[in-house]
């Protein structure tokens, strides 16, 4: 089960991912400066999720149900249509579509060691973060 409070212990390739997503250089620097210490909270009831991510300057919250499209907003204000599906019992995949047709992917996977691995992919760039 994904429910709980999560603390990041590793973040790789984040600035490159933001660049691939088209985030401008000034905003990228600000986001990277505060993103290395985010905390997360996940609440889960069956296939319904609430995810809250907190940094020193911003809190983002999303609510969604597996298999139902929803709208979310990125840290830099871009709006996406997202759809989350189960890939396996411990892994969910989120396809995010921007109105301009750009696509990015996120997966969240629980490991047997109790870690939560978030992998984000856009335009061939892969960013991985590990939470405990």
From TrEMBL:
Organism of derivation: Neotoma lepida (Desert woodrat)
Keyword annotations from UniProtKB, A to Z: Transport
Annotated ranges, domain Lipocalin/cytosolic fatty-acid binding: 4-131
Family of the protein in this entry: Belongs to the calycin superfamily. Fatty-acid binding protein (FABP) family.
MF-aspect GO terms: lipid binding
Protein name stated in the entry: Lipocalin/cytosolic fatty-acid binding domain-containing protein
């Amino acid at each position: 089960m994904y429910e709980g409070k999560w603390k990041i212990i590793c973040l790789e390739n984040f600035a490159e991912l933001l660049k691939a997503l088209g985030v401008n250089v000034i905003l990228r620097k600000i986001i990277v400066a505060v993103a290395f210490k985010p905390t997360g909270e996940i609440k889960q009831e069956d296939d319904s999720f609430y995810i809250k991510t907190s940094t020193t300057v911003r809190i983002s919250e999303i609510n969604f149900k597996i298999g139902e499209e929803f709208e979310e907003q990125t840290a830099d204000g871009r709006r996406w249509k997202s759809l989350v599906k189960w890939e396996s019992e411990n892994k969910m995949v989120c396809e995010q579509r921007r109105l301009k047709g750009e696509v990015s992917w996120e997966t969240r996977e629980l490991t047997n060691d109790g870690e939560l691995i978030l992998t984000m992919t856009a335009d061939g760039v892969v960013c991985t973060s590990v939470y405990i």
